[in-house]
Amino acid sequence: MSFAREIKNEIIAAKKENADTAFAFLSGLFHGAGQLQKNSQGYQAVIVTDLDGLYEYLNNLIHMLYGDYLELDIEDDYVINKTTYFRITFPQQISQQVLCDSGLLFLADGGYHINYGVDANLTNSDEEKIAFLRGAYLGCGTSSIRLSEVESEKTTSGYHLEMTSHNHEFLTDVASLLSEFGIFSKLVERKNNYVVYIKEAEAIKDFLALLGANESVLALSNEMIRREKRNRINREVNCINANISKTVEASIKQVEAINTIISTIGVDSLSEQLQQVAMLRLANPEESLEGLLALSTISLSKSGLNHRLKKLIKIAEELK
After folding, report:
1. Distance CA 162, CA 198 (A)
2. Would the pLDDT of 275 be above 90?
3. What is the average pLDDT value for the chain, to the nearest integer?
4. Each residue of 186-195: pLDDT tens digit?
5. Per-residue pLDDT averaged across 169-184, rounded?
6. Cα(267)–Cα(256) distance, rounded to whole angstroms?
7. Residue pLDDT, tens place only, 15-32
8. How far, in Å, CA of 115 to CA of 112, rounded?
9. Contacts of 245 (CB under 8 A, 6+ apart)
10. Residue ranges per structural domain of the chain
11. Phi (first) and psi of residue 271, to 5 degrees
12. pLDDT class for 197, splitting at 50, 70, 90?
């Protein structure tokens, strides 16, 4: 199961709306995943979702508010990328009232009109604002975050959570609500849709905590620790490999210089100190300076040994 789906299932399982937050939640959900179908009897409310657990959640919520039950239709031909989508249809007799109470419809000039933004009357308190965001995320939220199944596994995904909609006004209001809680997002247009997204891991954690998805916050925190540990190990390995490459390149250059000296003026033409260093390097071409000193009885510091090797290279360059 994807992390995005785990977040939504946790929200459904953990958070029950009360009478004070129910309509704010429904408003966010309708904006995110709702369909308004107009017929001879007025508007009918529909929620389209891939969350099968949302039906019971909504059923209990509407029963608390209106004393009615919903009808759930699962269309067998409504499958995208092997994902079945469920159509949750509100009873006709309460649909229009639910949409008005949720701020999706308002009566003016003798008729009903659609409200594309957030109804300020439903988001007066922080509790109501959070309920609206909870509904909006269940309706149109997703995440590309992939959790590592094992500590050593490297994930290719970064930290990204987003909500997508055709409704620019709705997502503008979502971004505004997020900023009120210190969660800063970006709103962009993507392929005829609008997307409000969060890319900072800490901001995503704050958002999930706001929605009440505490287990998901913990899972994301553990993932961040695992990734940082892997990154630190990779940095250390890269540093070691870089040092090894540097040592190998230096050793090759030193051995080539010594061979040049041997094939031209001969190693005997060197001072005794340089002869010792030259023979030591030829005998141990893969060793680092520390390794050479450990294998030798020459009383030299690392910088002293490096100086003599550089001197051998200089002599070879002059001979060339």
Report:
1. 6
2. no
3. 87
4. 999 998 899 9
5. 95
6. 13
7. 788 888 999 999 999 999
8. 10
9. none
10. 3-212, 245-319
11. -65, 160
12. very high
The values of phi and psi at residue 34, to 5°, are -90, 155
Query: What is the CATH topology of the domain spanning 3-212?
Result: Endonuclease I-creI (3.10.28)
Q: Over the Cα atoms of the chain, what is R_g?
A: 34
| Six token digits for residue 141 | 């939220």
Contact between residue 276 and residue 305 where contact means Cβ atoms under 8 Å apart? no
DSSP track, the chain: --HHHHHHHHHHHH----TTTHHHHHHHHHHHHEEEEEETTEEEEEEEES-TTHHHHHHHHHHHHHS---EEEEEEEEEETTEEEEEEEPPHHHHHHHHHHTTSEEEETTEEEE--S--GGG-SSHHHHHHHHHHHHHHHEEE-----SSTTPPP-----EEEEES-HHHHHHHHHHHHHTT---EEEEETTEEEEEE--HHHHHHHHHHHT-HHHHHHHHHHHHHHHHHHHHHHHHHHHHHHHHHHHHHHHHHHHHHHHHHHHT-GGGS-HHHHHHHHHHHH-TT--HHHHHHH------HHHHHHHHHHHHHHHHHH-
The position carrying tokens 């959570």 is 161
